[in-house]
């Protein structure tokens, strides 16, 4: 009887437990003045005020423009390399070029490699590279390309595996070999989805490139970091608005591209 | 195809005592067939009678459990996929099985992939190779105007004609068609069948098509092979088929084996 009750209401019971846990966790927060530190309220107020009055002086705008360009350049360069990595590793991980006994081994190996690449965050890769090669633009590009290549490659492999089998079978019947199948069947069919996913990842890459520049690699993140240290909130907001505009532009571009690709 | 070959050599398809069974209890019983070069054969019979299985065995897509399949004088297991097979056998399906994302011309020129190396295939995606073949094939199926359109934008009937144009470019010795018109409306279905049979006769190709409609089979083909429960029920030139025989094929099929038919639609 009791077991039956639990079985039918398992979701409701879990919800109640989770809500209770959350409510209980609130009691762990010290609800006195220490939640926000002494100068905190004033600082927040200052920041909000600065938000409506960003620094629009020519020097700041010029700096923001140059920094945006640099961040975009890191992101695009990183993504280009990531796409190249993803194409090679993704196709191998999808197992469409190998048949017979070795197929599972090849698939497993390259899925493993892709997993390793994306298991490590781009910031960690950046630290590793900075330790080895110093602060250089290449460091940022590689640090971005490796984990992004890992993610893209994995998604590409999944998309290639999900392609409808009938057109592939028909191409094979026309005498197509494995590589011909790839270029006449698999890739065209996966292209639309892949493109919109790449565009989404480009947005992510811009955010990552921004964070990366906190490490000292230049770009919008570096400027935000400097302005924050100097308590120039008006400048901080200028840079943040530029970053937002950058991401929105990429979104616009991606919509434009998708319209041309999806039938 | 040259006419000399037709008269001298082995039959296009020779099946000796083939069997094939699937998990669901459905099977092809020992079945033997000979189809000569240049014949136009319609496969008819109730759903689940084994038409698709038989076509797939003839196309060397699936192997029979036992028995021998000889395609154009060569044992099927010796034919490697790729050019050796694509020159002998081409296939059309009910769902046209084109790559929707590619322009029509590349779907048509895919019929040349067996002849081209990788380099030429890749180049063709940018500068179409053997373009005259595609142009000519699309003229024959009446789709010249759509040569650069994305295939997904074409109607079902047009897509089936693109599939046909691919076969015209591939020029296999035999065409196997699995329910080629069952997803088209009657007017388009007749158009397509007329083309399919017409092209096969013009190019001296062998044609084997499975059909739902016995009416179409009698009108366009020269030989009818009826399957029931995985065995040949009759195999007659079209002139020898009468209404009584056909009625028995479908009636008996449903009465004697109604359940099995439902399980294997």
Notes on the protein architecture:
The complex is a heterodimer of chains A (263) and B (265). Chain A has 263 residues and is an all-alpha fold. Chain A has helices at 2-8, 10-26, 40-52, 58-94, 102-119, 122-133, 137-161, 165-173, 178-212, 220-229, 233-261. Chain A has 2 domains: 1-30; 57-261, Orthogonal Bundle (MetI-like fold), CATH 1.10.3720. Chain A is built from 11 helices and no strands. By secondary structure, chain B is of the alpha/beta class. Chain B has 2 domains: 1-88 and 172-265, Rossmann fold (3-Layer(aba) Sandwich); 94-171, no CATH class. Chain B is built from 10 helices and 10 strands. Chain B has helices spanning 3-8, 51-58, 83-86, 104-109, 118-126, 131-140, 156-170, 186-202, 214-220, 243-263; strands at 13-21, 27-35, 40-44, 66-71, 74-75, 89-92, 174-178, 206-210, 223-228, 231-237. In chain B, strands 6-7-8-3-9-10 form a 6-stranded mixed beta sheet, sandwiched between helices. A 4-stranded antiparallel beta sheet of chain B has the order 2-1-4-5, covered by helices on one side. In chain B, helix 6 (131-140) packs across helix 7 (156-170) and helix 7 (156-170) packs parallel to helix 8 (186-202). Residues 1-7 and 253-265 of chain B have low confidence and may be disordered. Chains A and B meet through helix 8 and helix 9 of A and helix 3, strand 6, helix 5 and helix 7 of B.
Strand proportion of chain B, as a percent range, falls in 15-25%
Query: Roughly how many Å is the radius of gyration of chain A?
Result: 25 Å
What is the count of β-strands of chain A? Answer: 0
CATH class type of the largest domain in chain B = Alpha Beta
CATH architecture of the largest domain in chain B: 3-Layer(aba) Sandwich
Q: Could you estimate the helical fraction of the residues of chain A in percent? A: over 70%
Task: State the CATH superfamily name of the largest domain in chain A.
Answer: MetI-like
CATH topology of the largest domain in chain A: MetI-like fold
Question: Approximately how much beta-strand content do the residues of chain A carry?
Answer: under 5%
- Please give the share of residues in helix of chain B: 25-40%
Shape of chain A: globular
By helix and strand content of chain B, what is the structural category? Answer: alpha/beta
- The number of distinct structural domains of chain A comes to 2
């Amino acid at each position: 009887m009791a077991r039956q009750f639990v079985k039918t209401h398992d979701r409701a019971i879990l919800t109640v437990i989770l809500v209770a846990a959350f409510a209980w966790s609130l009691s762990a927060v010290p609800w006195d003045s220490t939640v926000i530190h002494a100068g905190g309220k004033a600082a927040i107020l200052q920041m909000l005020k600065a938000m409506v009055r960003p620094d629009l002086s020519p020097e700041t705008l010029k700096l923001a423009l140059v920094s945006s360009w640099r961040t975009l350049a890191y992101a695009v360069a990183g993504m280009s390399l990531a796409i190249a990595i993803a194409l090679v590793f993704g196709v191998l991980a999808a197992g469409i070029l190998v048949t017979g006994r070795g197929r599972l081994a090849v698939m497993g190996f390259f899925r493993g490699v892709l997993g390793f690449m994306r298991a490590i965050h781009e910031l960690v890769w950046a630290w590793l590279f900075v330790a080895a090669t110093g602060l250089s633009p290449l460091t940022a590009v590689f640090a971005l390309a490796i984990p992004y290549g890992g993610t893209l490659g994995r998604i590409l492999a999944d998309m290639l595996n999900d392609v409808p089998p009938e057109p592939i079978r028909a191409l094979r019947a026309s005498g197509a070999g494995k590589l011909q199948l790839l270029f006449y069947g698999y890739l065209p069919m996966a292209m639309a989805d892949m493109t919109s996913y790449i565009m989404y990842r480009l947005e992510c890459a811009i955010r990552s490139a921004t964070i990366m520049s906190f490490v000292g690699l230049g770009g919008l993140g570096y400027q935000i970091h400097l302005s924050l240290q100097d308590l120039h909130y008006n400048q901080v907001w200028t840079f943040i608005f530029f970053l937002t505009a950058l991401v929105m532009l990429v979104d616009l571009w991606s919509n434009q591209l998708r319209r041309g690709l999806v039938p | 195809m040259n006419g000399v070959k037709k008269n001298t050599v082995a039959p296009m398809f020779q099946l000796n005592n083939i069997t094939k069974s699937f998990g669901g209890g459905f099977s092809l019983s020992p079945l033997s067939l000979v189809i000569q070069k240049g014949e136009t054969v319609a496969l008819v019979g109730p759903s689940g009678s084994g038409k698709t299985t038989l076509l797939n065995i003839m196309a060397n897509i699936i192997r029979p459990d036992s028995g021998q399949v000889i395609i154009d004088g060569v044992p099927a297991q010796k034919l490697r996929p790729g050019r050796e097979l694509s020159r002998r056998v081409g296939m059309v399906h009910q769902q046209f099985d084109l790559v929707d994302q590619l322009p029509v011309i590349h779907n048509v020129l895919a019929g040349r992939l067996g002849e081209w190396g990788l380099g030429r295939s890749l180049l063709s995606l940018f500068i179409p190779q053997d373009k005259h073949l595609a142009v000519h094939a699309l003229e024959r199926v009446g789709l010249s105007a759509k040569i650069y359109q994305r295939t997904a934008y074409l109607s079902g009937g047009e897509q089936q004609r693109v599939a046909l144009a691919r076969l015209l470019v591939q020029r296999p010795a035999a065409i196997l068609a699995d329910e080629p018109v069952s997803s088209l409306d009657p007017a388009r279905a007749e158009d397509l069948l007329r083309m399919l049979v017409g092209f096969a006769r013009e190019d001296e190709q062998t044609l084997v098509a499975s059909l739902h409609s016995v009416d179409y089979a009698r009108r366009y083909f020269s030989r009818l092979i009826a399957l029931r429960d995985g065995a040949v029920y009759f195999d007659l030139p079209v002139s020898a088929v009468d209404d009584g025989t056909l009625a028995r094929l479908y009636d008996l099929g449903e009465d004697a084996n109604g359940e099995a038919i439902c399980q294997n639609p």
